[in-house]
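Question (not urgent): is this output format expected?
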Amino acid sequence: MKKAVLVVDVQASFDPPQWLVDQCQMLASGFLSAATVERHDEQKVPFFRQLGWKPGSVDNSLVRADREFIKYGYGPPPEVIDFFQDWEIDRVLVCGIQADTCVLAAGFALFDAGLQPTLVADTVVGSSLDRSGKLGVNLWRHHFGQVIEKHSDIL
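Got this back:
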């Protein structure tokens, strides 16, 4: 089974803890990897109008990956799916920020594309609703079943 890593929104706007950046970097360094970065375009996604929040305008991923993709909204852009399919990837190991929103949205997109999304539980944090990420891990387990508890079990 060919594996790759998707790093979701590990960028300054979300104030990631350094341990998360480090663990995501370890994963991304061991496999073909892609990272998403949330940007703001109110014409595409009304984050500010509806939520009173917007990410920084020049954020980049804090994790070095083989490819970086800009996204607007919760889910990854279609180019992320194309990237993994072009490489004939079967399983995508997912890590990053907002396990209960953006990470989960990435899982749905990967699943719907016929890939096997697999969450690495100790490489996620949640949204402000549950910064621990436990809600997102439980939702992921419920919807996709595939959760690896520790990144060290992969490397």
